[in-house]
From TrEMBL:
<protein>
    <recommendedName>
        <fullName>Cytochrome c oxidase assembly protein CtaG</fullName>
    </recommendedName>
</protein>
<comment type="function">
    <text>Exerts its effect at some terminal stage of cytochrome c oxidase synthesis, probably by being involved in the insertion of the copper B into subunit I.</text>
</comment>
<dbReference type="GO" id="GO:0005507">
    <property type="term" value="F:copper ion binding"/>
</dbReference>
<dbReference type="GO" id="GO:0009846">
    <property type="term" value="P:pollen germination"/>
</dbReference>
<keyword id="KW-1133">Transmembrane helix</keyword>
<dbReference type="Pfam" id="PF04442">
    <property type="entry name" value="CtaG_Cox11"/>
</dbReference>
<dbReference type="GO" id="GO:0033617">
    <property type="term" value="P:mitochondrial respiratory chain complex IV assembly"/>
</dbReference>
<dbReference type="GO" id="GO:0005743">
    <property type="term" value="C:mitochondrial inner membrane"/>
</dbReference>
<dbReference type="InterPro" id="IPR023471">
    <property type="entry name" value="CtaG/Cox11_dom_sf"/>
</dbReference>
<keyword id="KW-0472">Membrane</keyword>
<dbReference type="InterPro" id="IPR007533">
    <property type="entry name" value="Cyt_c_oxidase_assmbl_CtaG"/>
</dbReference>
<keyword id="KW-0812">Transmembrane</keyword>
<dbReference type="GO" id="GO:0042803">
    <property type="term" value="F:protein homodimerization activity"/>
</dbReference>
<dbReference type="GO" id="GO:0010101">
    <property type="term" value="P:post-embryonic root morphogenesis"/>
</dbReference>
Length: 176
């Protein structure tokens, strides 16, 4: 009996640890287009400002939003795309609405496509991996503040990459 209780407790613990562990593994490996972290965004911005880095290439960042099966939310990007030059920061918004009659808590994951561009895409502020609880019928706007590293423009592997897609998926955390 103690063995079964221990296994059940371990499974519950693993389910709570899944999102933070997934986030750390993805950020460490770049798996699934998740942005890897080596140098902080603030350090990159400061370094490029000191160096006087300027760019001319314009990148179109497109936004995608999905909800997992069984998640009764409407989740959409407020704008479909923005144009930004490497070295510039930009602000975008997503809107989430709880279309059910009960409070629901969700958490989002994201990825960047093409995956090879993910190392240059830096989120400064984001709602991803943070639990969001919406009351019945509640609607909120969630900001994403991001920066594209100017090194994007000089990387030969990025030649021909003129569009980046930032995609979020919301998953239901629990039944509130």
């Amino acid at each position: 009996m103690a063995y079964l209780i221990g296994v059940a407790a371990a499974m519950v613990g693993a389910s709570y640890a899944a999102v933070p562990l997934y986030r750390r593994v993805c950020q460490a490996t770049g798996y699934g287009g998740t942005v890897q972290r080596r140098e902080s965004v603030e350090d990159k911005i400061s370094r490029h400002a000191r160096d006087g880095t300027t760019t001319s290439r314009e990148i179109i960042v497109q936004f995608n939003a999905d909800v997992a099966d069984g998640m009764p939310w409407k989740f959409i990007p407020t704008q479909r795309e923005v144009k930004v030059k490497p070295g510039e920061s930009a602000l975008a918004f997503y809107t989430a609405e709880n279309r059910s009659s009960a409070p629901i808590t969700g958490v989002s994951t994201y990825n960047v496509a093409p995956m090879k561009a993910a190392i240059y895409f830096n989120k400064i502020q984001c709602f991803c991996f943070e639990e969001q609880t919406l009351l019945p019928g509640e609607k909120i706007d969630m900001p994403v503040f991001f920066y594209i590293d100017p090194e994007f423009e000089t990387d030969p592997k990025m030649e021909g990459v003129n569009n980046i897609v930032l995609s979020y998926t919301f998953f239901k955390v629990n039944d509130s």
